[in-house]
Structures are given as C-alpha cells and as structure tokens.
C-alpha cells in the first residue's frame, strides 16, 4: 500500500517530531554514557532506543506518552547498570567483558583467538588498518570490550611496558 490517509501522514509528522525532540532531550539529560559504545549493554540500549522510536513513529497503537516512557525506562535501566558496575566489582564482572590479548610480541595467541572467534585474517586486517605491515612490528593486538581491535606497535609500547601486566591471558 502506497498511501493510507492524510491523517496517518500528519500523525507521523507530529508524533515523530515530538518523539525525536523527547529522545534528544532524554539523551542530553542522561549524559554521554547513554550512547557510548563500551559494551554489549550499551549496544542493546542504543538498538532498543532506535526500535522504540520507530515504533512510536509507525504504530498508531502506541501513544506518544507510552513511547517516551519506554525510552526513559531504557535510559534509567542503563543508568542503573552503569551505576552498579562502577560501584560493585562483582556486578561489573557479571555484566562486562574483559579485553582479550590476541597477539603478543608478534605472536598470534591461537587459543584466545579461537575462544573469541577471531581469525588471523581479522587480526592482520586490524594491523594493516593501523599501518603495521608485519605482525612482528606489533607489541599487541587487543580485542576491546566493545568488539574493536586495538593495535599497539612496538615503537608505541616503549621500554618497560608489558601487555601481560595490563591484560589477562585468554
């Protein structure tokens, strides 16, 4: 169906504008952390906020107030999880992943790569993207908690810096 009614289009314009303004206000009030890409919970909140906004826009069965309340609830829950994880090491270990060392001093850590389901090709792609032509030039490649790969070149690591002290072996 290409066109249902003018009132449907009007609803999308009015409710969509108001829902968008509400979402921006909620995110401004909640702070930068709400949309940070730090872990799986942050991703879930970001996707859920987008889904909620889409539902408010396109479903006339969801009132604007209900949709805004749903967005506020997601932000409050996210705030609660981050508040607890900052204050409770036990809770933090339950909800957050640790970074994983995938390459150390030019050697691929096959067990860690297998556990994290990362291939050599993905690690070498991260090396190339960081301007490292050869794995031997890398002090470390780390799978971060947000799923990104960080590359530390040997010349960046410097003397006395040991990746083993800052990361668990995986």
UniProtKB/TrEMBL annotation:
It is found in: Cell membrane. It is a multi-pass membrane protein. The chain crosses the membrane at residues 6-27, 39-58, 64-86. Keywords: Cell membrane, Membrane, Transmembrane, Transmembrane helix. It comes from the Bacteria. InterPro entries: DUF421, UPF0702_alpha/beta_dom_sf, YetF_N. Residues 18-82 form the YetF-like N-terminal transmembrane domain. The keyword Membrane applies. One of its GO terms (cellular component) is plasma membrane. Residues 88-156 form the YetF C-terminal domain. Belongs to the UPF0702 family. This is Uncharacterized protein DUF421. It comes from Microvirga subterranea.
């Amino acid at each position: 169906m290409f066109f249902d009614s003018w009132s449907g289009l009007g609803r999308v314009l009015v409710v969509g504008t108001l829902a968008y303004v509400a979402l921006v206000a909620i995110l401004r009030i909640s702070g930068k952390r709400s949309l940070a890409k730090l872990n799986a919970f942050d991703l879930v909140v970001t996707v859920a906020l987008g889904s909620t906004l889409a539902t408010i826009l396109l479903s006339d069965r969801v009132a604007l107030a209900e949709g805004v309340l749903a967005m506020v609830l997601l932000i409050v829950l996210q705030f609660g999880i981050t508040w607890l994880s900052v204050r409770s090491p036990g809770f933090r270990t339950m909800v957050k992943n640790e970074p994983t060392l995938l390459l150390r001093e030019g050697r691929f850590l096959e067990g860690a790569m297998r556990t994290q389901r990362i291939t050599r090709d993905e690690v070498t792609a991260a090396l190339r993207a960081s301007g490292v032509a050869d794995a031997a030039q890398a002090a470390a490649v780390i799978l971060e908690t947000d799923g990104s790969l960080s590359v530390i070149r040997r010349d960046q690591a410097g003397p006395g810096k040991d990746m083993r002290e800052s990361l668990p072996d995986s």
